[in-house]
From TrEMBL:
SUPFAM superfamilies: Homeodomain-like. PROSITE patterns: HTH_ARAC_FAMILY_1, HTH_ARAC_FAMILY_2. Keywords: DNA-binding, Transcription, Transcription regulation. Residues 214-315 form the HTH araC/xylS-type domain. It comes from the Bacteria. It comes from Epibacterium ulvae. This is Transcriptional regulator, AraC family. InterPro entries: AraC-bd_2, AraC_XylS_family_regulators, Homeodomain-like_sf, HTH_AraC, HTH_AraC-typ_CS, Tscrpt_reg_AraC-type_HTH. One of its GO terms (molecular function) is sequence-specific DNA binding.
């Protein structure tokens, strides 16, 4: 069963805002103690979706601290891991004597089973995933070793995790319980893989093929501008045969080549209407996204969008 909750201090009287915020955090995550220098002017919002296995939330607020204390832990029955993905400003996570400072794109894990402290900067934004402790430990028994450890969002595996969290979070809303369960399991696989990479271990994945697909798609999206990007290049990057990788893609009803072409056309369509690329010609935009045959590009674009690139750009 899915449920969505939202908390916003803007509708609360100034004198009550921070106490409201403290209650909102406890209701959304786990019991915590919160503090801020400017409680009466405090502003913050939480949008959280509770799925059958995990919860995904978007948090933004002014500077404050949140502390998981021993008395909070003793009053709790459930145990969770939380993964914090920084989207704006910075935050610091302290646990087990370790400290991780997160900048936009960075991630870090922490555990509700032990005391921790969060120091959140002014006007921060972050995405938080909360998952049952046993689900991650089943895939990565040493996950506890990686709490308060910064995962660089610009590194290869860090970028893979960061780019796919939002994509998988959207699919987690699907009303099909089988698909939703698979998507949540794959998202936990993704987190386990990112963490395992940090300590040179392998995670026990619930769906290895989904992990392969994520890696392949991420590589493709990051290299659309390469004219030589094809199924052979992708398969070599992933480390499997073209035939096997195509079989994985085929389960989603398209080939590697079709996915590359589709993503290139999507990127061109976005850039044609993006003011940042207004100084570029249609040909230049097509070339920068890997199309070398401009006549073929125009035909593909028309077949996809139902009009020429020129008409699409002008909004005709």
């Amino acid at each position: 069963m899915n449920a969505q909750s939202q908390y916003d201090t803007s509708q609360i009287a100034p004198a009550n805002r921070f106490s409201y915020w403290s209650d909102a955090i406890c209701n959304s995550y786990v019991r915590l103690g919160c503090d801020a220098k400017n409680m009466s002017r405090f502003k913050g919002s939480i949008k959280i979706k509770h799925h059958s296995v995990l919860s995904i939330s978007e948090v933004s607020a002014m500077a404050h601290t949140a502390e998981r204390r021993k008395q909070d832990i003793s009053a709790s029955t459930d145990e969770y891991f939380l993964l914090s993905l920084q989207r704006r400003e910075t935050s610091r996570i302290k646990q087990f004597g370790k400290s991780a400072i997160l900048h936009p794109g960075d991630m870090a894990l922490y555990s509700s089973s032990d005391p921790y402290e969060l120091n959140l900067s002014n006007n921060f934004e972050k995405t938080v995933l909360q998952l049952p402790r046993e689900k991650l430990l089943a895939r990565l028994p040493n996950a506890q070793m990686l709490v308060a450890h910064r995962i660089d969002g610009q590194s290869g595996i860090g970028r893979l995790v960061r780019e796919n969290i939002q994509e998988f979070a959207r699919f987690a809303d699907d009303k099909n319980p089988t698909l939703q369960s698979m998507v949540q399991a794959t998202l936990i696989d993704l987190i386990a893989t990112g963490l395992a990479n940090e300590i040179g271990q392998k995670a026990e994945l619930s769906s290895p093929e989904q992990h392969v697909l994520m890696r392949a798609k991420s590589f493709i999206r990051s290299n659309l501008g390469l004219p030589e990007l094809d199924r052979n290049r992708v398969a070599a990057e992933i480390g499997m045969s073209v035939r096997r990788l195509n079989a994985v893609f085929a389960k989603e009803n398209y080939s590697i080549a079709e996915y590359i072409r589709s993503e290139r056309l999507k990127r061109v369509a976005i850039e044609l209407r993006d003011d940042r690329y207004a100084h570029l010609s249609i040909s230049e935009i097509a070339i920068r996204n890997g199309f070398s045959n401009l006549q073929h590009f125009s035909t593909l674009f028309r077949n996809t969008q139902g009009r020429s690139p020129k008409s699409y750009r002008s909004g005709e």
